[in-house]
Amino acid sequence: MGLVIIFLLVALLAIFGLVRSIKDKNLLGAFFAFGSLAVFGWFAIMTIIYNGFPVAH
């Protein structure tokens, strides 16, 4: 379940990258940032829904 946390962090960084690339009018960067956000965010959210949030042991 540590992988889900890492993917959530990657999705969070993709949000910052998307905002920055849109602000700089970098369309290719915005495209890849949105793609990363979609893939990593979708995987992390669906894993949390399917398996539940990881608990601390």
UniProtKB/TrEMBL annotation:
InterPro entries: DUF2759 (IPR024490). It comes from the Bacteria. Pfam families: DUF2759 (PF10958). Keywords: Membrane, Transmembrane, Transmembrane helix. The chain crosses the membrane at residues 31-53. This is DUF2759 domain-containing protein. It comes from Metabacillus fastidiosus.
